Amino acid sequence: MTESPTRRPAALREGSRRSQQDLMQAGYALLEEGGVDALTVAAVAERAGMAVGSIYRRFGDKEGLLLAIQRAFTDNLQAEIMEHMSPERLRILRDPAVTVAEAVGAVTDAFQAHEALLRVFLLLGTRHEAVRIEGSRVSIEGNRHFAETLRHTPIAHADSEAALDFAYRLIYASIAHRVTQGEFLESDRPLPWNELRSHLQTAVVSYLLDAPEGS
């Protein structure tokens, strides 16, 4: 019996998808374990169980591979945040303070969960323009999604868009600083992730929902 012509392409596409996932997972692991210096085409090929030539054919060189891994990682990270911060999910909470706190928590939790790999890309972005551009792209998308999620929340500022933009900048800057610099750069007082999350939630809820003085 001959194989159906419609089945073979589907099988090839599925194999290609799995190979792509294996490559991304291999790249993630190497970056987490040893940073960008550990990411070589040969190391990724060995970890993924693929031929070096097939990686060169897919990505061209190490930089192409690095950017493909970053793009896959940032897209997955953004999807994870959006799943936990979807307007449909948060709209049923009714209490604006709880809604804002959940949105802040969604961003914080995702960054904490992927702290090691985020550190690699955030630090690399300070000296690698293409990595910085990709990081900026996904961060701006996150900002827009944060604002869209809280669009129906009663923001206590005349310019609600500017207030939401600042709130996201505050969240992102605090978490990115924590990821890249650790817990004790500016203080020797312990601040575990759960406490950082709670303090950020309190600060952002207060900023967005409490009427500014003189308003």
Tell me the overall shape: elongated
Question: How many H/I helical runs?
Answer: 10
- Report the count of strand segments: 0
Rounded to the nearest angstrom, the distance between the terminal CA atoms is: 78 Å
Structural class: mainly alpha
> What's the main sheet like?
none
Mean pLDDT: 90
The radius of gyration computed from the alpha-carbon positions, rounded to a whole number of angstroms, is 21 Å
Model description:
This protein has helices spanning 7-34, 41-48, 52-59, 62-84, 87-91, 96-113, 115-124, 129-149, 160-181, 193-209. It is mainly α and 215 residues long. 74% of the residues lie in helices and 0% in strands. The termini are far apart.
Topology overview:
Layout: H1 7-34, H2 41-48, H3 52-59, H4 62-84, H5 87-91, H6 96-113, H7 115-124, H8 129-149, H9 160-181, H10 193-209
Helix pairs in contact: 1-2, 1-4, 3-4, 4-6, 4-8, 6-9, 6-10, 8-9, 9-10
What's this model, at a glance?
Helices cover 74% and strands 0% of the residues. By secondary structure, the protein is an all-alpha fold. Helix 1 packs across helix 4 (62-84) and helix 4 runs parallel beside helix 8.
